[in-house]
Amino acid sequence: MFQILNKKIFLVDYLGHFVDIHSHILPSIDDGAKDISDSLDIINGFNEIGITHIITTPHVNQNYYPNTTQSVHSAHNQVQNQLLQLGLRHIALESSSEYMIDSNFENLLDQKLVAPIRNKFLLVELPFLQSPINFDQAIFKIATKGYNPILAHPERYFFLHNNYKKYLEFKSKGIFLQLNLLSLSNYYGKQVSKIAKKLLMDNYIDFAGTDIHNVKQLELLKDIKISNSTLNKLIPILIRNVEIFY
User: Fold this and answer.
1) What angle do helix axes 190-201 and 228-245 make, rounded to 10 degrees?
2) Which pLDDT does position 8 carry in this prediction?
3) CA 87-92-94 angle, 5° bins
4) 45-54 pLDDT, tens per residue?
C-alpha cells in the first residue's frame, strides 16, 4: 500500500496538447538550436509528445544575444517554411523573445522594439546571481506600455533562494511566474528543484514552459517522474497555458 501511495508518475504523459511558451528552438540566434536541423529535431520530438503549439522565445540580451524583431522573424520564417515543406502544417509556431532586464531593455520598450506574446505578455529574465538595479523601474515601465510581465524560471535565481518572501512581492506587483518543467527534476540542481516544488505547492506559479534548448534536454524531460501531489498542483497550470495561449 505504501508503494502504491508513493507511485511516481511520468510528467510527459500529461503534456499532450500543452502549449509551450518558453523555448529556444530557432536556429543560430542564441544558445539554443544550432541550425535548422536541430530545430526540426526538437520540433519532431515535441510532436511525438503531443506538443504542437510552440511559442519560441530566443534570448534578447545586449551583451550576448542582441537579437532584434527582424532577426527573430527571419529565423522563424526559416523554420516555418521547412515545416510546410515537410507537411507539418499542424505545428503552430509563434515567436516572441525572452528579454533580459539589462541596461538596454527599457530602450527597447520605449522604441517599441519588443515582440510580446499575444500582444499582451512579455517574458523577461534576470541575471542568476543578482537583481538588476533597474528591475523595479523596468517592471513599472512594462505595465505602462500595456504589457504583463512573466518572469522566466523564478526558481533558478539563486539570490532569491534565501529571500523567499521576494516571490510574494513579485506576485503583488503583478508579475506572473513561469516554471521550467525541467526544474521538477534535479537537472539544474537539487536546490532549484526544491524551490520549484515549494513555489508550486504555495500556488505561486502561473505558467509553465520547457525552456528547451536542445534534443538532450527534451529526452531528459521525457524521463521526469513526479508525485501525485506535484501533479495535482501542476495540472491547473498546464490547463491555464492552454486556455490563454492556445
Assistant:
1) 70
2) 81
3) 130
4) 999 999 999 9
Angstrom CA distances, 220 to 157, 184, 187, stand at 21, 11, 8
Show Cβ contacts of residue 224 under 8 Å, excluding neighbours closer than 6 positions. 10, 11, 12, 181, 182, 184, 185
Confidence (pTM)? 0.95
Q: Where are the beta strands (DSSP E) in the chain?
A: 9-10, 19-20, 53-56, 59-60, 92-95, 98-100, 121-125, 148-152, 176-180, 207-209, 225-226
In 82-197 the beta strands, taken as DSSP E runs, fall at 92-95, 98-100, 121-125, 148-152, 176-180
Whether pLDDT at 4 is above 90? no
Report the helix count and the strand count for the chain, using DSSP H and E: 10, 11
Instruction: Name the percent of the chain lying above pLDDT 70.
Output: 98
Q: What's the pLDDT at 6?
A: 56
Contacts of 43 (CB under 8 A, 6+ apart): 25, 54, 79, 83, 88, 91, 93
Handedness of CA 243, 11, 165, 96 (dihedral sign): negative
- H/E stretch holding 71: helix 69-85
- Residues 36, 78 contacting (CB under 8 angstroms): yes
The fraction of the chain above a pLDDT of 90, given in percent, is 97
Mind listing the pLDDT tens digit for each residue in 69-127? 999 999 999 999 999 999 999 999 999 999 999 999 999 999 999 999 999 999 999 99
Q: Using CB atoms within 10 Å of the CB of residue 88, give its burial: 0 to 12 exposed, 13 to 18 middle, 19+ buried.
A: middle
* Domain residue ranges of the chain, discontinuous segments joined by +: 2-245
- In this structure, which topology does domain 2-245 adopt according to CATH? TIM Barrel (3.20.20)
